Amino acid sequence: MAFAVVLTICGVLPWTAGTPTALRVLAALVLVGAAATALIGWGLLRSIAIDRRRLAEAEFDAVLIEAAGPAGACGCGHTHDPDELHITDACDHDGAGQSCEHNCDSCVLAALRPGTPA
After folding, report:
1. Which residues, in sequence order, are bridge partners of residue 80?
2. N or C: which end of the chain has fewer CB within 10 A?
3. Is 4 left (phi over 0), alpha (psi -120 to 50) or beta?
4. Average pLDDT of the segment spanning 33-39
5. Do both 63 and 74 map to the same domain?
6. Quick one: 2 and 57 in the same domain?
7. How far apart are CA 43 and CA 29, in angstroms?
8. pLDDT at 28
9. What distance in Å separates the CA atoms of residue 17 and residue 33, rounded to the nearest whole number?
10. Which pTM was predicted?
11. What are phi and psi of 23, to 5 degrees?
12. How far apart are CA 73 and CA 80, in angstroms?
């Protein structure tokens, strides 16, 4: 980001004084480079923030699952295999033979997350 600031200063200075046209064209190109560098820096910072948020959420989920005790504590009515963390008996919600798309983690987390209806 600091490099984008330096490029912006270098691109603006020729426009403040009487300079040849060729130098102003180069200054315009430097300003475009400064904008591109700033956008790349912003994207990297945004990506890092999103990754940190996902990591914090994963750690929070792990704490909730650990605090819940045995995997069968979710009470969703399905037989869970705590070693594999998936449902062992398939369910048929719509009569088309579709199996359940949730697992022990999602059942436990749905019951334990603040503000989530059980």
Report:
1. 87
2. C
3. alpha
4. 94
5. no
6. yes
7. 21
8. 92
9. 21
10. 0.52
11. -70, -35
12. 10
